[in-house]
């Protein structure tokens, strides 16, 4: 069996593992106050082309989203998100569990528009009864989105402008950020994110690390006492250097982008076959998640040798599935799937 | 100016006020452990045709909804509601502030259907990734709804059946319950609610009391330690007898229904004029909230002498408004408005 | 039976009731946005000798404490309180339920000292591991305390100074404030509180109102969006004018102080008898709560005609009890108890 | 420099690292639903001599405590703990952040007694006003405690009996459990814990793993939907197999006990020197934390070559410090410190 179910089926990139082995018996202070973390932060800030940001390392995505949002919002404030946003559907109510409403908006291909955000904000605050409604204060978007699509620089700028206009906070979930940065047609860089967001995170769990997400805080107001909230959320790793070591490896000599590009290359190979066969897509994108619509009969055959996610029923004989590539996807596996697809379609 | 803005513009029914005056200097124990509360509870249980239920008196609606939901749900559970439901839009995120997601469903005229509820539940729990989603555990509906519509006994039974099938809890917000019970065509009684719900409340604030809501708990599992949660939510009135006194008056000799019928009579008078003039309605109902669509020019004239709520823009020259009658609405005021409407339309 | 159990056994002062009757059928906007509230706020600000403060009316004490603390603190911040403080022992964990630790300090006669507060703060923040501990941010004290004692102006100034030094917030719970202001030897005025605190509240429930507490917010940072939190906590009364009407009556022509002095006069009459009989006190104070230590045999006799609270066992034959007077205590009742005590002791 | 500051200065035991390397590129399902987790759970259950328990793997201690307590308690319930308990002092208010009061009791050498627990419970529930107080529902103890002391089997049984008597839940924090199990004089086994507790956890972070804690749930009531709460707390590791792999190694062939015994041997070596030199102890114990009281002059010298934690000032010239050994402590390092101590004292 070859699994294309998700981008966290394997462990970590071999260079990450090597460095974890190499540093294993060193003694360092705990909780992220070690030299590996310090160095990793510097590498990340350099990539983001900023000196003023703060970088914090957390373990996983739900944890990171909850910690950032809890730290940034007052009790009566909510966070605007796409209805398909991870915080809205797949975090077991983590955001609500820390007291905040997710103001979910219907999203085309997983993306919010600046106009939507502005309208939602105005609808909540112009009214006499605004105090009876949640106050929208933060915009949460994912880059790439949960459906693999990307915000263009223009789209991001427009949203950022709305945020500035109404003093809203822009938070970008980059759980799969590498696969966005490496995608054909992407025009958003880390430096752009650092310029346009108040806070964002660079995903490691899905992009070469055993685990770990790097939160980059730009807005000075969001920096104060952030480590308290990390600790309170149970998100402060005792052996914090494990995160520093991993991100140092990933951000030295461009490894993060190199392995991200590999995942994209693998995805593009699969897309070529699917395009050739005139396969329709549930949603079109160029990142590491592929959502082809395939005949159920074909899927039945594929299931014998491949793992993938069922996405949605399209009609009586067709379903959309999700195929994920990642830093760990082997060229052989993709080659094999390409051939099987070619034969079956 | 005559205000038809809402059903809480005035104080309390004169009989309520009289009894509060009469008992004012009596000494009673605090926190609802007095004879007036005891007697009021008995009167309510009698109307509900049950002996096993528990009755608790709280001060206001948001407080009551939050207390009931907080007491009933575990941390990972959410409450299904109409998108127009009070807990979803007009309680400043109170439900989320105690940790629970409101799973809002698009609602036709403010009402959920049994099929919607079932589909929502199944979508959340059938999947492999159900643990990554909020677990729906309670259904919240309002009778009448926020748009003045009513669930029929059949509709209520259907929803109740779905709840029983999946061990979901049914909670009915009766902030305006009297106006529902008294509405033409209503076939749901207090005894029906006590038979079909796990918990519901009978609104006093909008129906003759200075303030106060009577929570009726049917499901034994929801009774345990409920008073702790009332206290923790700041919802336990020190002079609890104020609530007992008021509900005793309202539920003695049928006053609650008598004054509710008055509000409905007043609303029906207004509807007759509007029907005569072929006025369209934003939503049709027979309770104490009327949602006519009127020419903006007419509204401009009306605004000089009458208060009402702006509901929505319908087209370039028409808007929907909300007119509320209540136990306190004077026949004269309605007469005057009827004439003005007749003249203007 | 005559009840001296607490200061909320009766309804409201007759003038309050009269005004509620008089204004009962007037139509006003809801949620505290009416003229009665506006006028009551002005009267209170005048007594506080300030123009910059904001006044908000809430229904009860637990609700008020929770709303103020929730609004003021970030998630990782805690509130320092006496171990006997109301928020620490008698609010069913309301403060923790909104996420904040009560940092309880052992208190002599219910009072914190400036030195205690400073030491507690420093112990929490000087350490390397401060991020692993709750950050103290607010000091909660009650005036009078739960044991009827009072902070002197000097003591209050010292605490306020510590707060300013470390940017801590000072919050005074004035549930029984009138009885403190009217006590012999008190040297703290409303204007002092307005000058020295960040926020405090003036209790109505225990001092002449049916219910209601007036929150006075001095610190501009605490004013922002406070009404959202009131609403979210279920603490925004629909018929808010009920609170305005009551506080307007209480703060017009000095009624609040007049009835507070009455309660103190009643308490002092009882104290005179107890002093004459050389009765010991569980805690000494001059406000409306009296804590005599009496022989159990005497208590057994008293219990037949009087209600009071059992406070603590002192030795095998003696117990401390709490006797409360209030605005509603009748001179006759006190006279009768004085005579019975004289005879029994 | 040699660090004796804590038991998480290094990475993981070499066998753990080897197995992580060996399995690194295997494809497994995420979120702990893999074979490594399954096998590790079986090994743990065997050691606990039970078949009915559930095992869940989480990442760290604060996270684990919060998840267990949040899952087990209703909103108005609190957890009794020693005032020195980790959840009371060193988790940044994590327990309060999920809504629960920590009812801290003064603890002799970090330990609660059965009598204390019973008295605390009775004080909270016997009173008329019990609904105004937090309801104690869970007892949290650490084995070993934060001060390295151990509950004897007799002490544990007594506490367990009180819990059964009042239907309280017993939760044992075993962050350093191995070092307790391996300590001289310990008479509590994993099987005892499984018999006497409702839930406990076996620490990995401080005992040979890179990170990870194994929660063992005995009480069936606590099993329901536990994974939802793990996810909601951001404690569900995407690559859950990392935890399974580690615990499998630790619990195969007795490695967990073997490395725990090593840490104890190292500590006992140090204690022998200190005993010989008649050094006093801040608290006496036989686990991996040593709390000697040493002259400040000696500490100044030691600081040049060794890291340790400052615990408390004892008098003008003496301080208590904490020295930690662990699975990773080298015999050489201990030998060196022993000699330096011998020379200096």
Walk me through what this model shows:
Four copies of one chain form a homotetramer. In chain A, α12 packs parallel to α14. Chain A has 345 residues and is of the alpha/beta class. Chain A has helices at residues 14-22, 35-47, 61-72, 86-89, 94-97, 114-125, 153-166, 177-181, 190-196, 226-232, 241-250, 255-276, 296-302, 331-344; strands spanning 2-3, 54-58, 77-82, 102-105, 135-142, 169-174, 199-203, 213-217, 281-283, 289-295, 306-307, 309-315, 318-324. In chain A, 58% of the residues are buried. Chain A has a seven-stranded mixed beta sheet, with helices on both faces. In chain A, strands 9-10-13-12 form a four-stranded antiparallel beta sheet. In chain A, β5, α7 (153-166) and β6 (169-174) form a beta-alpha-beta unit.
Concise description?
The structure is a homotetramer of 345-residue chains. In chain A, the strands form three sheets. Chain A has a seven-stranded mixed sheet with strand order 2-8-7-6-5-3-4, with helices on both faces.
